[in-house]
Amino acid sequence: MPRQRKDFLLNPVVITLVVVIAVIAAFNFYQNMAKINHLENQIQKIEAEIAEAEAKNQKLKEQLENSDSHEYIEEVAREKLGLVKPGEKMFIPVEENEDEDEDSKQKK
What transmembrane ranges does the database entry give (predicted)? Predict the structure, then answer.
């Protein structure tokens, strides 16, 4: 009886079947690992977006809390609207254009 079992395991059909099953299992394992890596990358990207949104939300909350203060209103008026207090002079920096730089180089 033991001899027949040993012969059965050495049968080329059984060996081929075992190899095919092993190859299929390895392929499925590789596909699952690739899917897991892809999902982990998506999770990291989404967590980064969440952190960015939370930081933006915190900044907006701070702006909302400060929106009634006179300092904040003055800051917005100066930066966004370009307003100045009476007696102050506003200086606007002027940058040279690239075209003007090329013209001055050609004249020299």
Answer: 9-30
